[in-house]
Task: structure prediction
Amino acid sequence: MTNSGTQRTHGRTAAASGWWNGARGALVAAVVVALVLLAGLVVVLRPGSPQLQPVAAEGGCGGWIEDLPGWDESQMTVGFGLRNPSDRPVAVRGARATTDRGLRSVELSLRPMPSGGEEAAFGWSGTPVGDVDTAVVVPAHGEVWAAAEMHMRPGARAGHLTSVRAVTDGPLGTLGTQVLPVGVGMSGVGEETC
Result:
């Protein structure tokens, strides 16, 4: 009788323990779901990264009038600004250029804004610009200078830089991509149109 009673008590204890473990698991799952929903709400309510704006990067075109001894006229560097109009700094983690078929490649670099950098500047760098490989922070209401070294395809009459894709910091440690429209280019030696 005692053994039977003891077995029943253990059976009830095991059943109660199983019920408690199930309830505890459900409670933990509910807390996890609530935290995930709360994090999603914070992401939705918090404004995204401020959007950069290109400055003096529309409608410009450079070209070489004549062949210059020792110069490579299939390349030209154009500089223009990227402005942060917001009250918060923007951290750029990397950037690359997109082009039309006239350009073989573009090497892009972000630098401090030079004096008088409000207008696009075309010229010859003489040395490769180099790709962005470190973080660049554009201060609130500030600007950085984008230097893009354009390399024209053999036989092309003109080539154009069409946009800059910038990878920037987003909310909660995320990364976002900003596509900045750009409309600058270069023409071949002696070409009248771009």
